Each structure stands twice: as structure tokens, then as C-alpha cells.
TrEMBL record:
One of its GO terms (biological process) is carbohydrate metabolic process. This is Glycoside hydrolase family 76 protein. Keywords: Hydrolase. The keyword Hydrolase applies. InterPro entries: 6-hairpin_glycosidase_sf, Glyco_hydro_76, MUG_Protein. It comes from Zasmidium cellare ATCC 36951. The keyword Hydrolase applies. GO terms for molecular function: hydrolase activity.
Amino acid sequence: MSRLWATGEVLFLFVAVLQVIVMLRQYAFTAVVLGASTATGTYWSGWHGRGNPWQWPGPYPSAGGWWLEQSQEVLSTLYSTYWNGTYWVEDPSILQWAAAVVNTFVIDTQRTFTTAISQYNGNSHGSQVNAAQIQANIRKYYSDIETFYTSGEDVNQIFDAAYDDAQWVVLEWLEAIKFVNQYDAYSKLSFGQEDVAEFAHRAHIFYNIVQNQFNTSLCEGGLTWNPALAPYKNAITNELFVSSSIGMYLYFPGDNNSDPYPSTTYSNRTLPPLPYLKPHDPLLLTNAKEEWAWFKSHNFTNAQGLVVDGFHISDGQTTCDERNEMVYTYNQGVMLSGLRELWEATGDTSYLQDGYGFINTVINSTGWNANGYGQAGQWAGLGRNGIMEDYCDAPANCSQDNLIFKGAYFEHLDLFCEPLPTETPLVKGLTYLADQGLANSHAQKCRSYAGWIQHNAYAALSTRNATSDIIGEWWGASYVSPQSLPLTPQNPRD
Ligand SMILES: *[C@@H]1O[C@H](CO)[C@@H](O)[C@H](O)[C@H]1NC(C)=O
Ligand SMILES: *[C@@H]1O[C@H](CO)[C@@H](O)[C@H](O)[C@H]1NC(C)=O
Ligand SMILES: *[C@@H]1O[C@H](CO)[C@@H](O)[C@H](O)[C@H]1NC(C)=O
Ligand SMILES: *[C@@H]1O[C@H](CO)[C@@H](O)[C@H](O)[C@H]1NC(C)=O
Ligand SMILES: *[C@@H]1O[C@H](CO)[C@@H](O)[C@H](O)[C@H]1NC(C)=O
Ligand SMILES: *[C@@H]1O[C@H](CO)[C@@H](O)[C@H](O)[C@H]1NC(C)=O
Ligand SMILES: *[C@@H]1O[C@H](CO)[C@@H](O)[C@H](O)[C@H]1NC(C)=O
Ligand SMILES: *[C@@H]1O[C@H](CO)[C@@H](O)[C@H](O)[C@H]1NC(C)=O
């Protein structure tokens, strides 16, 4: 096995599992806190023979304190292994978009910890949580996030990359703004507020790259993946356009800084001033709605309902006539945060319905609903034995891009499943409130995913190396024979 397998792949996986665990917070923390202990042995150890093992959520199904502790440990190992004080270090060096996504996971984890201490406050399980220590950690990690902003992120490189890369940066700094606002609502301090204008400026610079790129000349719309290559209208770039556009509409505070350069050292090109973009500009909502309508009307799903990678346009054609059937995990999820926010902005529940549909398809495609051991162990489209897998996990030939896909899936599922607001709008004067019935049904649907999520989190934790604490990439490895590899539907993206 290559060095990349030994270290590189696990970085992303590590973050991915953190994200899975982190998402359990909303549904687990009110349950009884069991004593913390360390899981040992293989995935199956501790299974008491009740129910189907491929649906087993692990030994701590509802122990919020235990999962919180695991999250802290995973994050701490991530830092001690891969953070050099300014940057994520990897061999070979980390891809810029992936670094942006890792930083987004770190930011979202701080949001999760903030939710945890707010929920535990004054609650009977509060004794399990040392809120002061968690707050100290939040402040420490926040200063690393600031360092990554000022001295880590290689904005020059990513500025000239593809249209998907730019949008990960947009989502990254929007999450940072959301974190600051969430933390300050809890702490009643103005912690981090001095950074918001800068975060907004970076989100603006990178959104400006794609803002006007929805182009109807080919395939009646959509964005192309990379303007430097032949047009490829792929799922990720277009899902990101839903999520980044609606995220900008709701959470971007406006930016009057007209400096168009990603950094003071950028020298590739001379750029016109960055146009002013006001908060809640209707253009942003239009972009998100138009993009989702286009995505839905251009069959991006295979017979099983899984999102495929994208469409090429053959020579001399203007329609999306050549589909790449490859299925990746992140393509099933990155639109989810956008769909939820489209509901926030419009009150139209069809966006939520679309989201539930995609999530159910994914869960089923891991073999979760199998009717017996034999079927559970067979490749079901996106995994087996109830555990999510990318095609490259089992043969251990993932590219560095592939390695972070499952993490991105779970992050966006997490954002989708945040409780719907019933009393205080998320953005005053702009977002809708859910009636109690809708809020309950959303919570109930999301709670119904919790067993599957915990099953995946526990499987991932079971791959942890006891010496290094690093988690493996193929979460279901411990009970699948290496001979039974899935067949890849088409050679990965060209
Ligand atoms: C961390 O790694 C990056 C990328 O290799 C490097 O540019 C930077 O100087 C390193 N920072 C420290 C504090 O070693
Ligand atoms: C611009 O500069 C970056 C490094 O700062 C380089 O990686 C990239 O290829 C350049 N892009 C173009 C289009 O020249
Ligand atoms: C739209 O796409 C067509 C075909 O690729 C291209 O020629 C045109 O310049 C694009 N329009 C814009 C506004 O980018
Ligand atoms: C930006 O400038 C415009 C025009 O001067 C002004 O109306 C607006 O309030 C400013 N917005 C921000 C966020 O500073
Ligand atoms: C989308 O394409 C798949 C695969 O060709 C097909 O099975 C499915 O019926 C199509 N869906 C729609 C809505 O056309
Ligand atoms: C769910 O997955 C099972 C196999 O695990 C399959 O037999 C079944 O048809 C799937 N159901 C749906 C609705 O896709
Ligand atoms: C990875 O290995 C599998 C099994 O050998 C093969 O089918 C697949 O094409 C390989 N994928 C890549 C990206 O090399
Ligand atoms: C576990 O980590 C240790 C220390 O980094 C390493 O030497 C060992 O090879 C790892 N074990 C496996 C199975 O990867």
C-alpha cells in the first residue's frame, strides 16, 4: 500500500467521520448519557444479536456525551497529525479545494460544539459537558481558522481553478460568518465580529467568479465545470451553485470592498474593480432557483435515483447528450444544504421533499434495507452492509479529490437536517417560519436517518488505528472480503 493510503486518505476520512458524528448532535443529546468508554475490536464487537447487524447503530446509539467526546478526539488528532500551525500538511501536498473543505469542516464543528453547549446549558445532562473547556477549545480552533484565512489558504491558486473550486471557498467563509453569529448569540460577546467583513469579502470575490456563469447556450443552462476545458456540465459545479447562491442570498452581509484580487501577491491578470454586492440581492435567489429548476429538468439521476457525474456535449451538439454514469458520494449531498435554504427563503416545501427523496435513495443504496445477510453484503449502488462507500474505497485507488467526498456528503446532510425555525426567523424579515407540523415532520424524517448515520460513524470509528488514532478510509472494510469489489460504472471523470 502506498504512502498516500497510509496517511493522505485518512486525513479526509478522519474529517468525514467527525462530520458524521457531529451531525448526531441534534438527535442524540437529549438522550441518556452512558458512561464513556473506548470501542475496541471490529465493527461487530458488542453487537447483542438484536435486530439486523447491518442496521446496528453501535453500542452508544443515543449517548450524546460519548459522541461529543469522540468528536473532540478526532478533531484533536486531525490537528496534531496534519496541522503545521498555518496549513494542512500532506504528502503529496493537499489540493486547495480540499483544504478549503477541511477548514469548512473545522468551522462547522465549532458550530456543533456551540450548539452542544447551548443545548446542555441548564439541562440535566449538563454535568457531562465541561462548557468552559469546550469554549476554550472553540476559541483556540477559531484562532486557527483566522490563521488559515490570513496565511494558510492559497487563494491565488484556487482563484484560477475551476468553477467548483471557487464555490467551496464561498461556502467555507459563509460558514465562518454563520459560526461567528451563532457563537455570539450564545455567548453575548462580539467574538470574531471584526473578521466578518473580511470573510464576506473573500466569499464575494469567489462568488463573483461564478455569479454570471449560468449559461443557456448549451444544454439550456447550468454551469460548466472548468472554463479552460471543453464544456462539461457536471453535477458538483451545479449543485454547488444552488448551495452557494442561496447561502449568499441568506447569509452574505454585503461587501463594499472593491479590491478584486484574491491577495496582494496575485499577479496573473489585471482585474476590474469588484462590483458592490448588497446583502440579500434578489439576483442570488434567482440564481439558486433557476439552477435547481435546470438541474431537476435535466435528468442527472440513474435508474436507481442516484446522481451521476455530469453531461458532456458532443461535437456539433448543443444539448447535454453524453452522460457520465459515474456515481460519487458527494454528488448525492452537496445540493441538500441549498434545498433546505431554498425552503428558508421561499417557504416552498417541495425543496425539502426533493431533499428527503435524495437522502432515502442514498440510504437504500448502502444496503440498509436489505432483506438478509446475503443481500446486505452485496454492492447496493453506493455501499453495502448499510455503510457508505465510494467506488475507489475498497480497491484503495481514490484520488485525493475522492478522499473527502463522504465527508462533504455528511456535512451537507447535517446542514439540511438542522431544525426548522418555528419562532425566530433565521434571518429577520427574510426567512420563513415553519408551522409546528412542518417542523415536527422535518425533525421526524431527520431522526429516522440517525440510526443509519450512527451505523456509519461507528463503522468508521472501528477502523481507527490504536497507535496513531488515525481513522481508515474504507469504513466497511472489516467485514467485506477484498475480492468482492464493486464494478465501476464508467471510468472516473475525464
Ligand atoms: C506549513 O506548511 C505550508 C505548506 O507547505 C508552508 O508554506 C508553511 O510555511 C508551513 N508553516 C509552518 C509554520 O511551518
Ligand atoms: C496563476 O497563478 C497561480 C499561482 O499563483 C498558478 O497556479 C496558476 O496556474 C496561474 N493561472 C493562470 C491562468 O495563469
Ligand atoms: C456561454 O457559452 C457559450 C458556449 O460555450 C460561450 O460561447 C459564451 O461565451 C458563453 N456566454 C457567457 C456569457 O459566458
Ligand atoms: C455600501 O455602499 C453603498 C453605497 O454607498 C451603501 O448604500 C451601502 O450601505 C454600503 N453597504 C455596506 C455593507 O457597507
Ligand atoms: C433518468 O435516466 C435514467 C437512466 O437512463 C432513467 O432510468 C430514468 O427513468 C430517467 N428519469 C427521468 C425522470 O427521466
Ligand atoms: C432498496 O435496496 C434494496 C437492496 O438493498 C433493493 O432490493 C430495493 O429495491 C431498494 N429499494 C428502492 C426503493 O430502491
Ligand atoms: C480502481 O480499481 C478498480 C478495481 O481494480 C478498477 O475497476 C477501477 O477502474 C480503478 N479506479 C481507478 C480510478 O483507477
Ligand atoms: C498504525 O499506526 C502506527 C503508528 O503510526 C503505524 O506504525 C502502523 O503501521 C499503523 N497500523 C496500520 C494497520 O496501519
